[in-house]
């Protein structure tokens, strides 16, 4: 940082130890980079529901923790991992490695939690209660998991729920994580099924395995139209020629 971008605190001033960067605690130096560190702590506070950072530790203990031992505040249960990853960048020990605020603004817009809609009511004990069309902010969840965590924007309650009871924000979209297309047959672009939000336009089963291709010939699956079959065959031949 340039000299115009730094402030050296004079003696006998109160210091907010729990929010300060290592260089601020060591030398009383405050810069835009140390402000970024503080922002990371503030971000942590937001998702911890205003818990006090490093509660119970003295200023000296905090300095040893973050400067010598490399300790960092732990991710809270309701903080998305992507947001916590940003906080960790803000807490880089080297001030030069911390993101600039203009970068943080861009990153936050990209990391905004997804909004989903409850496709039906759900009220199992111990789970997040949902009513049809409730808007849910996703805290934790992905295609690999059948249990997600989020906040019901109507009740403001936070909890876990089955991913199968929510859909993407777009009207008519299928539940997130629902297979839409089968894996291609080995060494080709040929698929045994395609899903669609309109059942009339879909065919086959997305979980169909390549080993069961005989079922397609046996009529247990609805094959694509002749024109689609011709296109898929051409793609399969193209794939084979590229090997």
From TrEMBL:
InterPro entries (UniProt xref): Cdc42-bd-like, Cdc42-bd-like_dom_sf, Kinase-like_dom_sf, Non-receptor_tyrosine_kinases, Prot_kinase_dom, Ser-Thr/Tyr_kinase_cat_dom, SH3-like_dom_sf, SH3_domain
Basic and acidic residues composition bias: residue spans: 193-214
Location (main, coarse): cytoplasm
Subcellular location: Cytoplasm
Enzyme superclass (EC): transferase
GO molecular function: ATP binding; non-membrane spanning protein tyrosine kinase activity
Entry-linked Pfam families: GTPase_binding, PK_Tyr_Ser-Thr
PANTHER family, sorted: TYROSINE-PROTEIN KINASE
Protein name: non-specific protein-tyrosine kinase
């Amino acid at each position: 940082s340039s000299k115009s971008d730094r402030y050296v605190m004079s003696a006998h001033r109160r210091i907010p130890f729990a929010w300060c960067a290592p260089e601020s605690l060591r030398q009383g130096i405050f810069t835009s980079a140390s402000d970024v560190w503080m922002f990371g702590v503030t971000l942590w506070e937001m998702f911890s529901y205003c818990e006090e950072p490093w509660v119970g530790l003295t200023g000296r203990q905090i300095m040893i923790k973050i400067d010598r031992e490399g300790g960092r505040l732990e991710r809270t249960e309701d903080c998305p991992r992507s947001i916590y990853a940003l906080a960790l960048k803000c807490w880089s020990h080297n001030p030069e490695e911390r993101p600039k605020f203009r970068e943080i603004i861009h990153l936050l817009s990209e990391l905004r939690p997804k909004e989903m809609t409850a496709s039906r009511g759900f009220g199992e004990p111990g789970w997040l209660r949902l009513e049809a069309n409730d808007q849910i902010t996703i805290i934790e969840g992905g295609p690999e998991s059948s249990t997600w965590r989020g906040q019901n924007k109507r009740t403001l309650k936070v909890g876990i729920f089955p991913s199968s009871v929510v859909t993407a924000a777009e009207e008519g979209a299928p539940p997130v994580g629902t297979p839409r297309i089968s894996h291609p047959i080995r060494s080709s672009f040929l698929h045994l099924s395609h899903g669609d939000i309109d059942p009339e336009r879909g065919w086959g089963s997305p979980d169909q395995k390549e080993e069961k291709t005989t079922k397609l010939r046996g009529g247990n699956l609805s094959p694509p139209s002749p024109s689609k079959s011709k296109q898929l065959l051409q793609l399969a031949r193209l794939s084979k020629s590229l090997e």
